[in-house]
Design goal:
about 350 residues, alpha/beta, Aminopeptidase, 8-stranded mixed beta sheet, globular
Length: about 350
């Protein structure tokens, strides 16, 4: 109730001179324990941090400013922040992130957030797609499909919100958050259809659609994450319209290489009342992302099974780490308001991730 109250006060009209939603100056709760109040405040604030990042326009939130805001948010907390700038990305061989960001005047970044609350245990990893604006690149989106693309960094914003809540609650776990940040724009430097990119892992990608850029950014981001040897890893991305076709706009799609971890995540989401649904990862889909000129291609065969082929693409970069991919393209951003929240960014999966981290391995 406390978390929902705080989240219900957040609105998307952050630039209206007279916003329609009137936020109370003070809220009093009766009959609620201090523990519930503190937990509710931590979770509600974390959801709102995610929503504010997503609701800001792309002129305000771009890779560098996203990293700056995260750095400011975690200043003085138990979360340490590391930012890889363009030169560090070059040095690290993050050619996939750099390719997606090449067409923009805003250079890409990779953000690493570390929280150590679990002693010597191996960390859990949270990985987020952070395309701060997606024009589609040379595979240009129509205006109607581009207007809400400030929300294409919702996965990364969810990682920031979840890490805030994990630290605020002092959970006894080690968790590392990774945000791959790029702006997908059009210029003479844009990456092109037919390009072949050698990723940080060494695996090569043939580019057949520059609007399938989120998975390209995640290819390098996931590779950085697995080098930290997590015991389990979750990535979140507004990745495919195909997932919305399959599941609608209110349900997140889950795809995994480890049923045990996926079951843990489903249980956490069920506890928090966030609807998720698992999609199959059959081996027959592996063939759909094989390329004739490179190791893999960044789109499947036509329209069919697009959410799964995107996950199969990502699976190439997770190694043997138990991993769950969450496609939040539908529920991350809403056209209309509900009684419980305003339209715009929803902060979906923040509370489920906090619950999963808290209960993981218990």
């Amino acid at each position: 109730m406390v978390a929902g109250t705080l989240s219900g006060c957040e609105q998307q009209a952050i630039y209206q001179t007279e916003p329609a939603l009137i936020v109370p100056e003070k809220i009093l709760f009766a009959g609620i324990s201090d523990d519930s109040l503190q937990r509710g405040c931590a979770v509600g604030e974390s959801i709102n941090h995610t929503r504010r990042l997503v609701n800001e326009p792309p002129a305000v939130i771009y890779p560098e400013s996203f990293a700056d805001k995260a750095t400011s948010l975690f200043e003085g907390t138990s979360v340490t922040v590391e930012v890889w700038d363009e030169q560090r990305l070059i040095a690290e061989g993050c050619r996939a992130i750099l390719a997606v960001g090449a067409g923009s005047s805003k250079s890409p970044r990779l953000l690493i957030l570390r929280y150590e609350g679990g002693g010597t245990e191996k960390p859990l990893a949270l990985v987020g797609k952070g395309v701060t604006f997606d024009s589609g690149g040379l595979s240009l989106k129509p205006s109607a499909g581009m207007v809400d693309m400030k929300c294409d960094m919702a996965g990364a914003a969810t990682v920031v919100g979840a890490m805030h809540g994990i630290a605020k609650l002092g959970l006894q776990r080690n968790v590392i958050g990774f945000c791959g940040l790029a702006e997908n724009m059009v210029s003479g430097d844009s990456y092109k259809l037919g390009d072949v990119i050698e990723t940080r892992s060494g695996k090569t990608i043939e580019i057949l659609n520059t609007d399938a850029e989120g998975r390209v950014v995640l290819a390098d981001t996931l590779d950085v994450a697995i080098q930290h040897e997590p015991r389990a890893m979750v990535d979140l991305a507004t990745l495919t319209g195909a997932c919305m076709v399959a599941l609608g706009t209110d349900i997140a799609g889950l795809m995994t290489n480890d049923q045990g971890v996926c079951d843990e995540l489903q249980t956490a989401a069920g506890t928090e009342g966030e609807p998720v649904w698992q999609l199959p990862m059959f081996d027959i889909f592996d063939e759909k992302v094989k390329s004739k000129v490179a190791d893999i291609k960044n789109v499947g065969e036509g329209r069919w099974g697009g959410a799964i082929t995107a996950a199969k693409f990502l699976e190439n970069f997770v190694g043997d780490v138990p991993w769950v991919h969450i496609d939040i393209a539908g529920p991350a951003f809403a056209d209309g308001a509900k009684p419980s929240r305003d339209a715009g960014a929803t902060g979906v999966m923040v509370r489920s991730l906090i619950r999963w981290v808290e209960n993981s391995g218990v």
